[in-house]
Amino acid sequence: MPQAQARHILVDSETKCQTLIDEINGGADFADVAKANSSCPSSRDGGNLGSFGPGQMVKEFDEAVFNGEVGAVQGPIKTQFGYHVLQVTERS
After folding, report:
1. Which of 22, 48, 40 is nearest to 81 (CA)?
2. Domain annotation for the chain: domains and CATH numbers
3. pTM above 0.90, yes or no
4. Torsion (CA) 67, 13, 89, 35 in degrees, nearest 10
5. What is the DSSP string of 44-81?
């Protein structure tokens, strides 16, 4: 079964999400931005979600993780929890 490692930033608006994506694409450190802005407990670890397989995350997030380009900053991804900035760090 495929496995992925990813990190994310969870915020409550699409506008905020896009602003953070622009900051990261402009050179800001993903982990620093996660620590400062994400409402997810993973923010303490720079947004790191660890390793997981297909079906372990909500559908919209899962699709982005297993179909998106590794290393690329993706988003805004809307889920029942809010808006996510996502970066897949590894997939096998």
Report:
1. 40
2. 4-91 (3.10.50.40)
3. yes
4. -170
5. GGTTEEEEE-TTSS-HHHHHHHHHSPTT-EEEEEEETT
CB atoms within 10 A of CB 72: 10
88: closest CA among 73, 78, 75? 73
Q: What is the pLDDT of residues 10-62, one digit of tens each?
A: 999 999 999 999 999 999 999 999 999 999 999 999 999 999 999 999 999 99
| Contacts of 45 by beta carbon, 8 Å cutoff, 6+ apart | none
Is 4 in a helix, a strand, or coil?
Answer: strand
